[in-house]
Every structure is written in C-alpha cells, then in structure tokens.
Amino acid sequence: MLKQRVITGLVMATAVILAIVYLPVSGLMLLLAIVMLIASWEWANLSGFTSYPTQFCYLLFVALLLALLVHFGGLLSITTDWLPLRDVIGAGCLWWAVALLWVKSYPASAVLWRSRWVRGLMGLFTLIPAWLALVYLRSYEAGQALILILVAFVASADIGAYFSGKRWGKAKLAPNVSPGKSWAGFWGGLVASNIFAVAVWYACGQPLLELAELLSIAPIVAVVSVLGDLLESMVKRQRGIKDSGKILPGHGGVLDRIDSLTAAAPVFALSLMLVAESV
Hints:
Layout: H1 2-22, H2 25-47, H3 52-72, H4 82-104, H5 110-113, H6 116-139, H7 143-168, E1 172-174, E2 178-182, H8 183-203, H9 211-239, H10 254-278
Antiparallel strand pairs: 1-2
C-alpha cells in the first residue's frame, strides 16, 4: 500500500510541477477547473447526493459558477481587476474560520450541517475560492514560483505529519474527526512545511515576498492546511465512507489529495494581497 501510494504521489508531483511551470495562465486555469469539477463530483457524493443525475447537476452548477467568475471577473483579460474578486477569496477564508468551529465541536456541530443541501453549500465555499486563489497566484509574473511555494507548504506538511505522527504520535489531535491524526504529526508537519517552503522560495529566486513575510505567513498557511484535511475527514465520517473516490491508486479520490490545498490557497492568496497592499 505504501509503495503504491509513493508511486502515485511521485507521478502526481511530477505532473503538477510540469503543469505549473509550463502551462500558460489560461491553460492552468482550465486544468485547475477540471480538477475542481472532479472534486465537485466527489463532494456531491459526500454531501449525500448519491445518484449520478444529482451528482452531475452539482458538477454543472460548480462549472456555471466558475464560468461566471471567468466572465464577470475578466479572468481572461490582459489586466484583471482583482479588487472585486478579493471578496470571493475573503469569503473563502471566512468559511474556514466557521469550519474550524464545526470541526472543533464535532459531532455536536453536525446538527448544523448534516443536511445534504448544507453540505453541498460547504463544497461551494471549499472549492470555488480555492480555484480562484490559485488563478490569482498564477496571475503574478512570479506566479509559478508562488504556487510551487504553496504546494511545498501543503505537501511537506502532509509528509512531515505522516512520519512524525507515525514515530511519536500518541496524543490525538481530533479523535472524533480523524483518530489517526496526532499532535506530534501536527507539529512535525508545521516544521517541515516551513523548512520546505523557505527552500523552494530560495530555489525560485526569492519571488515577491521577503523572507520575514514568508515566515509570518507560513505557520498560518500550514495550520489552515490541516483544517482542510480535517474538514473533509469530518464530512466523510458523517457520510460513513473512507475515501472521497477511487481515481488515484493508494490515495483515494481527488478531494483526498487537494483537501489541504483548498484551505491553504485562499489564506495564502489573501495574505499575499494584504502584503502587496502594504508595500
């Protein structure tokens, strides 16, 4: 199982890096939209929409919202005005503050969101701001580097949490949501994400952010990435399933791989916006 997981992970990592580095903004925007649409299909099932027609309708609704953002947000224009679009990313960050409260108080909080319609709405707040945040990061001249830094945050936090949790994990982080996660894994992931993000920042030529700014953002992004993982675990537990899908051997579904990124991307993008405004 570990061998299959590692092989799939290496293939995905290679594909992600090549897409980030070589695809133009419009190409990456389309690829990210496809990924989010696959994730929306999986989220529809997590929400309780179990029939193919209802899952397809959910996917189409997400596609419509993404298309509206592209059209009315002018995302295909040469100079996109990101000021009005910032509210969408900000709403995504606000959603993760609500999600933190729900995860922390689970299972008592389930009374607020166990309806499939509410869970469907949760998916919109999870997927759409994340997609827009990634598109925003890519819009910078150093966009490839910024996304690579973000991916380094998330991937290294996941890897660090896995190995440190396996070695020292006794005290559980959120036993009602994800019994396998520990405080040792949390701290190990936090340390690893900071180290690798700084390494990628140096390797990419120190793009846009000063080191002090990067180090101030890094812990927040790393912590929020854990929340993304916990939220999906909570919804899966409520739904009674282990994985969001089976499309990725050894990893489950697309959502199982991007859950941390959906939380980290809006927070990283909004932090970058605030840093840019303060300059």
